[in-house]
Amino acid sequence: MSKPTDESATVRIDPYLGTVVHVVGTRQARPNLPNTGCPFCVGGREAPEPYVVRWFANRWPAMPGDRCEVVLYTPEHDATLASLGVSGVRRVIDLWADRTAALAARADVAYVLVFENRGAEVGATIAHPHGQIYAYDHIPSRPARLLDANWQPDLDPGDRFVAQHGDWLGSVPFASTYPIALSLAPRQQVPDVVSLSSEGRDELAALLVDVLTRLDRLYDQPLPYMMWLNQGHWFNIDIVSPWRRAGVQRFIAAAEVACEEYFNPVIPELLAEQLRDLA
What are the tens digits of pLDDT across the range 145-181? Predict the structure, then answer.
């Protein structure tokens, strides 16, 4: 199948709520599973040559103009981000920084989102460890609200504290809409992953290995999660999972969708205690 054209993607805005919707019908044609082998393994369609970490333009982009990329964490198909260890995660962080800098330098890019969907339950169609990058031509609503609110990390989370490595702190948010949620942030402000020092990148890598390992221990099985980097003011990372207990997904209900007021069955302080105990 040929690569979608730029004209196949359109942006629509709800005239009353202002909700932005990217209508990308061509993504319906993308394969959920590869027909012959994994395309991200060495020798596969997207990785014909040996690599350590790798990025490439998404063949099925959600936005036009080569503003969607895929980041391969490792050639090891059955690895996880945490299993790469601090040195392996550091290589991924360096690639995140390189691609963020390159995309942010473009005149048609206003916001760079680095993210990962891990597990079929949150929409990952290929199990090989990887993430994605979307470069928006505007600042999306949620990041814009965080920027306008001058977001800062809770540097004294008390009973919601989970772990710390160097300057980087991991805690459970005070009011998350997801049953499982972690917020990772440095105590000293840096605007983005590009600006993070070498020492800071090592500390972030250590914290990611730590908390992602704990999350997999929480229910004694790989936890599906979504992770994204919030950049532009005080760099931080959100990690959330829809599971409210092992294998049981919490679904957003009609009242929550209609009113944008959410009901979380997991007590943040209890979750933090469980994760602290899984060191």
Answer: 999 999 999 999 999 999 999 999 999 999 999 999 9
Average pLDDT, integer, range 96-108: 98
Per-residue pLDDT averaged across 78-97, rounded?
Answer: 98
pTM: 0.92
The domains found in the chain, sorted by start residue, are 6-276 (3.30.428.10)
SS (H, E, C) the chain: CCCCCHHHEEEEECCCCCCEEEEEHHHHHCCCCCCCCCCCCCCECCECCCCCCEEEECCCCCCCCCCEEEEECCCCCCCCCHHHHHHHHHHHHHHHHHHHHHHHCCCCCCEEEEEEEECHHHCCCCCCCEEEEEEECCCCHHHHHHHHCCCCCCCCCHHHEEEEECCEEEECCCCCCCCEEEEEEECCCCCCHHHCCHHHHHHHHHHHHHHHHHHHHHCCCCCCEEEEEECCCCCEEEEEECEEECCEECCCCHHHHHHCCCCCCCCHHHHHHHHHCCC
Structure tokens at 91: 């290589």
Token pair for 54 = 């790798």
Q: Within 10 Å of residue 67's Cβ, how many Cβ atoms? A: 22
